[in-house]
Design a protein that fits this description.
This protein has a single domain, classed as Nitrilase/N-carbamoyl-D-aminoacid amidohydrolase (4-Layer Sandwich). By secondary structure, the chain is α+β, with helices and mostly antiparallel strands. The strands form 4 sheets. It has a 6-stranded mixed β-sheet. Strands 8-9-10-12-15-16 form a 6-stranded mixed β-sheet, covered by helices on one side. Strands 11-14-13 form a 3-stranded antiparallel β-sheet.
Length: 296
């Protein structure tokens, strides 16, 4: 039994040139693996600038049908390095039906599976409902998934999913040892001075609470840099990628610059945490039916 695993997060800028994004991530993955990372995650929709700031039909052309080119680019690298890769991409499932998706590639280069983002936002400069269909709420697991990789059971959720305790809870109950959140979140430049620090801290706090409530490691991997949008001030992606242990303690943290984060995650520590804080044991599952209602 593997008692611990090293998790790596690639926090980087995204540029217009698709090939440049792919090649830079391959180099960074190699660097992370050289530092000992065994599970390495990239940020949400990393292969292009964040196009959801505007509603333009031509951006649907970026979507990839399975087997997706972006995913296939990384399968040989996973096998070569013997690492698990978490690769976000824009998925075309059919005409007019696209998803914000993430693939998990095992250390032998095989495709473990794909998670499709369940919660889709529609906010100023985050017009994701124009582009993405939510993942299917499949019977038995509600569309949430856990991937049994060589090094750990990996639960993947994506960006806006971060704010929903139900998503973290279900994925944890399915056996996830780590929740990985590929992310593209940032500040509206005009709001940064007044609300920026509070927004960032709220984002970190809600995810650390998922770690505590579920006794799991939680990792968020964000992009960095300002991305301009015609007619707007654009978005300043604030990075701040981090890894939290099951107590909510930050064991790897970053700022707003490009970086590689690596942290060792102990499965024994997860076991000990759940023994001392037995939240899953004490759940009153007989009393939670009202949560199936949108409002009471």
């Amino acid at each position: 039994m593997i008692e611990s695993f090293k998790l790596g997060l690639i926090q980087e800028k995204c540029v217009v040139d698709y090939a440049a994004n792919i090649e830079s991530r391959k180099e960074l993955i190699r660097a992370a693996a050289k530092k000992g990372a065994q599970i390495i995650a990239l940020s949400e929709l990393f292969a292009s600038p964040y196009f959801c700031t505007v509603e333009e039909h031509h951006f649907h052309d970026l979507a990839e049908s399975l087997p997706a080119k972006t995913v296939e680019e990384f399968r040989p690298l996973a096998k070569e390095l013997g690492v698990v890769l978490v690769i976000p991409f824009y998925e075309r499932r059919g005409a007019g039906v696209c998803h914000n998706s993430t693939a998990v590639i095992d250390a032998d280069g095989s495709l473990c599976g794909i998670y499709r983002k369940m919660h889709i936002p529609d906010d100023p400069l985050y017009h994701e409902k124009f582009y993405f269909t939510p993942g299917d709420a499949e019977e038995g697991h509600g569309g949430f998934k856990v991937f049994d990789t060589k090094f750990a059971k990996v639960g993947v959720l994506i960006c806006w999913d971060q704010w929903y305790p139900e998503a973290a809870r279900i994925t944890s109950l399915m056996g996830a040892e780590v929740l990985i959140y590929p992310t593209a979140i940032g500040w509206h430049p005009k709001e940064k001075s007044e609300f920026g620090e509070t927004q960032k801290e709220a984002w970190k706090t809600i995810q650390r609470s998922h770690a505590i409530a579920n006794g799991v490691y939680v990792a968020a991997v964000n992009r960095v840099g300002h991305e301009a949008t015609p007619g707007t001030d654009g978005i300043e992606f604030f990075g701040n990628s981090f890894i939290s242990d099951p107590f909510g303690k930050l064991i790897a943290d970053s700022g707003t610059e490009s970086t590689i984060l690596i942290a060792e995650c102990s499965k024994k520590h997860q076991e000990d945490t759940r023994r001392h804080w037995p939240f899953l044991r004490d759940r009153r599952i007989d009393a939670y039916k009202p949560i199936l209602s949108r409002f009471l």
